[in-house]
Amino acid sequence: MPWSGADIDVVVNVAPNTVNATRVFDFENPVPNQRNTLTIEYDTGGILQGYLRFNRYGNWQSTGGQLEADGNDTSNTTRYGGEILTDIEARFTFAENYIVAVGGENIFDVEADEEGNGPLQFLGVRQALTSPFGFNGGFWYLRANANF
């Protein structure tokens, strides 16, 4: 499986007290270590084309930007679970120049885990702002194209 990550070894030429252990933690950890995509495409060679896509995001962590007084404490870290999102699209071609597509992204309306940062919760944030797949839920669409 693919693995992604970021490691910061040295921080140089910055103003004092701006980049500390908490900030480095947030640079290194909000991206999941694993991200996988499986796409199944279908094409009749004529009128119908489409796809079904599964997007898997691994776990991730964040302090939510909560900087501690000494700047070197990551004890306020929130760990968020991974998710699988599903996208689908069907395209219909008419008279070789017209295409109508209907589809959806995140069709099962998967939401990120609840925000772990207390102040953000107080301000009304429901899902993790640092979610790698967003926090807006499902999206459905109808698209028409004309090629001349």
Would you give an account of this structure?
There is one protein chain. This protein is mainly beta and 148 residues long. Helices cover 9% and strands 36% of the residues. It has helices spanning 21-28, 118-122, and strands at 35-43, 48-57, 60-62, 78-80, 83-94, 98-105, 139-146. The strands form two sheets. A five-stranded antiparallel beta sheet has the order 1-2-5-6-7, with no helix packed on it. Strands 3-4 form a two-stranded antiparallel ribbon. The longest helix is centred in the N-terminal third of the chain and has 8 residues, at 21-28. The radius of gyration is 21 Å and the shape is elongated. The mean pLDDT is 83.
What would the keywords be for this entry?
single chain; 148 residues; mainly beta; five-stranded antiparallel sheet; 2 helices; 7 strands; 9% helix
